[in-house]
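User: Teach me something about this protein's shape.
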Amino acid sequence: MFRTSDGVEIDYEFHPGQGDVVVLLNGIFMNMRSWDFLSRDLRDRYSLLLHNFRCQWSSSNGACSFERHVRDLKELCDSLKIDRFHLVGTSYGAEVGMLFAAEHPEMVKSLVVITATARVTPHIRNCALRWRAGAETKDPTKFVISWLNDVYSESFLDSHPELLNSIVSRMEDFNFEGTVMLLDSFLQMERSPILEELGKIECPTLVVYAEHDRIKPPRFSHEIAAHIKNSVLVCVPDSGHAVVVEKPRTISYLVRAHLNSFA
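Assistant: First, the predicted structure itself:
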């Protein structure tokens, strides 16, 4: 655990290696284990830093905002004496990653943004409010049902009929109160979009979107790429928003190809 300047305990893992440091940033309902598919592929060539955001799973709760997540990551990296790294984030984590790259360009060697948005529209807000209502029940089944069809593609759901029960069975330690706070943090983007901050990002950036993303459709990734000067936009076909789950091999290939360009 790392204790932040405001006393929140952040659960993290650092795996030192021979190459550059790669920081992996979770989606809103993910935890560090969700990156195991990519960690296995990167660990032989890179050092890896993972953490659960404040209010997420095993980290403790505290005042929550994208700006606070950025500060937490900066404090964690400073404590580990990591001064420059590659950032890879998906959804909520990608949004934190973009803001970090905009505020600390000297620290970010490259950026990968997966299925993200830089603003919250009424459609996105209403979905997030439904998820929030699900989290407030503290009932794992009701909570997962509130977002499952938004996050996964129809083809993936049809080919994994036990997905609902599988996810629910792994939620014993889920932080429902913290999740409400994370969703409130995300919803702050309706009033304070980060779109105009993207022009401050200086590093090479890979923007990845999913063809059938229903919660953050492809147009939002196109918008992000248009605002980041040194960016490349890639589509992953036949996938919903949770592309890191639906298409892990594709995501691993894209991330490794992006990182290899700096070798």
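Now, about its shape. The longest helix spans residues 122-137. The radius of gyration is 17 Å. If you'd like, I can walk through any region in more detail.
User: That's plenty for now, thanks!
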